[in-house]
Amino acid sequence: MQLDLAAVRVAAAAFPKPEAFKPSYGTAGFRAEASLLPSTVFRCGMLIGLKARSCGQACGVMVTASHNPEQDNGLKLVEASGEMLEPAWEAHATQLAQADTAEQLLQVLAALAATLQPADTPGRVIIGRDTRSSGADLAAACSAGVAAVGGKVSDIGVVTTPELHFTVQTFNQYQALEEQAYFTNLLESFRTLTAGSHAPQQPLHVDCANGVGALKLQQLVPQLQQLGLQLQLYNAGQGRLNHGCGADYVQKEQCFPAGMGDLPAGACCASIDGDADRVVFFTKGQDGSFVLLDGDKIAALAAVYLRRLLSHAPPGTADSISTGVVQTAYANGASTRFITEQLGLQVRCTNTGVKYLHHEAKAFDVGIYFESNGHGTVLLKPSLLQRLQDMDENMSVMQLLAVSRLMNQAVGDAISGLLLCDAVLRSGTSLAEWQALYTDLPSRQLKLVVADRTVITTTDAERRCVTPAGLQDAIDAAVAKYDLGRAFARPSGTEDAVRVYAEAGSQEAADALAREVAGIVFDRCGGVGSRP
Ligand code: 16G
Ligand code: MG
């Protein structure tokens, strides 16, 4: 592909890279303090502009730092399929973002362009952003990058991350950009799923993290009310983004978000994150305690429901359909046991990060994936959808088709997840029954800083360390001392830290095992600061 490199040089000069800044594409894209990012988003605009021109379709960019604080920002790049950027291109993104001089930048760009052919159709880049105050300027910098390589831009303004993924996916199918298509799809599929079931007596209380999810849910409140779902929104924009609220806070701190501690016992509550791509549920126990229903519990509920729908489909359907659940090493051992032993479904484990789970889930006819932190969705294979469409109009078949429309097929979507869980709760499984599907093994997560976290490499879906030599043996020896013990250490893909997870038969044991493993990592990997 030919580029006007002189014009690129002029355009790039308006977005200089801060000298010591060395951004790299993490698990889900770039993330940093917003003032550092104009060069990164401009360059990623060029990258995704080239991709769109070479495939002749729409690709996407989402300007967001998800659950990070308001002063941060970042970006997630989206393929024409609506899915996350393919891993081979992540390296190109890092190379472009890190180029120190104009010469280096042009060289990397020209080398990439030389491998690509322009398609016959022009392609375009759809850009969205969350509610961060830095978002508009960064989206403009990204547009300038797309334009610099001759690409076309559609800026769709403030949207949730999954909405941007959905828009890219559906634009390439139907050429429609209107937001209403996203809402209508959610509402109509939810209507089908809940038709004939009792409307809940209780409202669903949703913590919106003071983020973009609040804006979108507010728009849905009246129509959802007509469908029998009463939404009460909290942290809907009056406070600071992700501050003392949001799915990340609630799941990690295991406590009520701001403004929701006074709700009565048994209230059905959920929390979404700053860009609305993850959701966890919670409630208050009779003793006032905080009770979390995390991504593992959502996966279990979805698995129970889909298994039920499949069993009511025309005879023989269920037997010929592969259903599986994809988890990560963080999945509570009790959830894995429940899904395999009680439900008889396959479970696969992948590395942390939606792109890995999503890829693995596509191998099943019905692939359910959720990370414990609430990222996830349910995928139905196109060939299965075709078979279902050809079947008689059985209620379960209609509902299976509705699940495939409600659940974002490109990426995890907090709003889809909220609505799916509500639909299942209405179909006869109470909140208490959901909670009681299995009892989590006590667990503990810790994080520590080491001199260079890349000395730790892992295998077996991050459950075992390969290097440094001897680390895994020491972890194994520690785990062996604890009843029902399991533990692992992995370098974070989003920050300069090592994460440790442990579970065991009691909370004291899980805490002790996590501390012990963190101590082992500290000693063998050059721990920084005080020993855990
Ligand atoms: C990113 C991932 C999330 C993962 C987390 C792990 C996406 C959209 N997001 O936020 O799935 O759980 O990273 O972070 O893929 P860590 O590597 O720092 O533990
Ligand atoms: Mg997020």
From TrEMBL:
<comment type="pathway">
    <text>Nucleotide-sugar biosynthesis; UDP-N-acetyl-alpha-D-glucosamine biosynthesis; N-acetyl-alpha-D-glucosamine 1-phosphate from alpha-D-glucosamine 6-phosphate (route I): step 2/2.</text>
</comment>
<keyword id="KW-0597">Phosphoprotein</keyword>
<dbReference type="Pfam" id="PF21405">
    <property type="entry name" value="AMG1_II"/>
</dbReference>
<dbReference type="GO" id="GO:0006048">
    <property type="term" value="P:UDP-N-acetylglucosamine biosynthetic process"/>
</dbReference>
<protein>
    <recommendedName>
        <fullName>Phosphoacetylglucosamine mutase</fullName>
        <ecNumber>5.4.2.3</ecNumber>
    </recommendedName>
</protein>
<dbReference type="InterPro" id="IPR016657">
    <property type="entry name" value="PAGM"/>
</dbReference>
<dbReference type="GO" id="GO:0000287">
    <property type="term" value="F:magnesium ion binding"/>
</dbReference>
<feature type="binding site" description="via phosphate group">
    <location>
        <position position="66"/>
    </location>
    <ligand>
        <name>Mg(2+)</name>
    </ligand>
</feature>
<feature type="binding site">
    <location>
        <position position="499"/>
    </location>
    <ligand>
        <name>substrate</name>
    </ligand>
</feature>
<dbReference type="GO" id="GO:0004610">
    <property type="term" value="F:phosphoacetylglucosamine mutase activity"/>
</dbReference>
<comment type="similarity">
    <text>Belongs to the phosphohexose mutase family.</text>
</comment>
<feature type="domain" description="Alpha-D-phosphohexomutase alpha/beta/alpha">
    <location>
        <begin position="101"/>
        <end position="172"/>
    </location>
</feature>
<feature type="binding site">
    <location>
        <position position="273"/>
    </location>
    <ligand>
        <name>Mg(2+)</name>
    </ligand>
</feature>
<keyword id="KW-0413">Isomerase</keyword>
<feature type="binding site">
    <location>
        <begin position="371"/>
        <end position="373"/>
    </location>
    <ligand>
        <name>substrate</name>
    </ligand>
</feature>
<feature type="binding site">
    <location>
        <position position="277"/>
    </location>
    <ligand>
        <name>Mg(2+)</name>
    </ligand>
</feature>
<dbReference type="InterPro" id="IPR049023">
    <property type="entry name" value="AMG1_II"/>
</dbReference>
<dbReference type="InterPro" id="IPR036900">
    <property type="entry name" value="A-D-PHexomutase_C_sf"/>
</dbReference>
<dbReference type="Pfam" id="PF00408">
    <property type="entry name" value="PGM_PMM_IV"/>
</dbReference>
<comment type="function">
    <text>Interconverts GlcNAc-6-P and GlcNAc-1-P.</text>
</comment>
<dbReference type="Pfam" id="PF21404">
    <property type="entry name" value="AMG1_III"/>
</dbReference>
<dbReference type="InterPro" id="IPR005843">
    <property type="entry name" value="A-D-PHexomutase_C"/>
</dbReference>
<feature type="active site" description="Phosphoserine intermediate">
    <location>
        <position position="66"/>
    </location>
</feature>
<keyword id="KW-0460">Magnesium</keyword>
<dbReference type="InterPro" id="IPR016066">
    <property type="entry name" value="A-D-PHexomutase_CS"/>
</dbReference>
<dbReference type="InterPro" id="IPR049022">
    <property type="entry name" value="AMG1_III"/>
</dbReference>
<keyword id="KW-0479">Metal-binding</keyword>
<dbReference type="InterPro" id="IPR005844">
    <property type="entry name" value="A-D-PHexomutase_a/b/a-I"/>
</dbReference>
<feature type="binding site">
    <location>
        <position position="275"/>
    </location>
    <ligand>
        <name>Mg(2+)</name>
    </ligand>
</feature>
<dbReference type="InterPro" id="IPR016055">
    <property type="entry name" value="A-D-PHexomutase_a/b/a-I/II/III"/>
</dbReference>
<feature type="domain" description="Phosphoacetylglucosamine mutase AMG1">
    <location>
        <begin position="179"/>
        <end position="280"/>
    </location>
</feature>
<dbReference type="Pfam" id="PF02878">
    <property type="entry name" value="PGM_PMM_I"/>
</dbReference>
<feature type="domain" description="Alpha-D-phosphohexomutase alpha/beta/alpha">
    <location>
        <begin position="53"/>
        <end position="98"/>
    </location>
</feature>
<feature type="domain" description="Alpha-D-phosphohexomutase C-terminal">
    <location>
        <begin position="472"/>
        <end position="518"/>
    </location>
</feature>
<dbReference type="GO" id="GO:0005975">
    <property type="term" value="P:carbohydrate metabolic process"/>
</dbReference>
<feature type="binding site">
    <location>
        <begin position="490"/>
        <end position="494"/>
    </location>
    <ligand>
        <name>substrate</name>
    </ligand>
</feature>
<feature type="domain" description="Phosphoacetylglucosamine mutase AMG1">
    <location>
        <begin position="294"/>
        <end position="426"/>
    </location>
</feature>
